[in-house]
Amino acid sequence: MKAKLLNVLTVCVVTLAVLSPELVVFGIVWERHLELVKSQNLACEVNNTTTDAPALVPYTEGTHSPQTNIQSSDRNVVHQMLTVAEQYKFTTILQWFFLLTPICVGLGILFYDRYLVHRAAVLKEQVEMLERLWHQSIEQ
After folding, report:
1. Rounded to a whole number, what is the distance in angstroms from the first to the last CA of the chain?
2. CA-to-CA distance for 78 and 49, rounded, in angstroms?
3. Which SS3 state, helix, strand or coil, does residue 44 take?
4. d(CA 51, CA 73)
5. What single-letter DSSP state applies at residue 62?
6. Do 99 and 16 meet the contact criterion of CB atoms below 8 Å apart?
7. Global pTM?
């Protein structure tokens, strides 16, 4: 049992050692990707506002006010930023999941092995006590 436990713990440690740098690199690349997407979205918003040119159009009763267009574009930017933040949270949770899973599996196996050893020791003590009681009853 100890050899199996040692093999499993070795595999868990090696897996952790292999995955840790990859998770760090993935996190850095993902952050840069999110920054790129955010800058592209902001560039598109700037292009949309400059092509619409609400400030250059004179205000008449039939057209919308420039302030309404600005407020709607602000809402779009806020919505996009919230979406990016949710993706970042998901990525962080995923990174921690991949990092902690091998550690938790290794600790679970270790604690289960200790539990089995403890149960065997308790059972052995109980058997020895019953044998002593049996020998005492025979002697009487």
Report:
1. 42
2. 16
3. helix
4. 13
5. T
6. yes
7. 0.41
Q: Which residue has the tokens 């040119």?
A: 53
Distances (CA, A) of 63 to 2, 51, 69, 89: 79, 16, 11, 41
Residue with tokens 């897996």: 15
Residue indicated by tokens 């790129």: 36
Please state, in angstroms and rounded to a whole number, the distance separating the CA atoms of residues 14 and 3: 16
Q: Which residue has the tokens 């267009």?
A: 69
The first and second tokens of residue 139, run together, are: 């002697």
Token look-up 């979205």 returns: 41
* 127 vs 137: CA distance, rounded Å: 15
User: Tens digit of pLDDT for each residue in 17-72?
Assistant: 777 777 777 778 888 888 888 888 877 777 676 655 554 444 455 555 555 555 66
Instruction: Name the DSSP class of 57.
Output: S
Owner of token pair 């949270």: 89
Tokens at residue 2, please?
């100890």
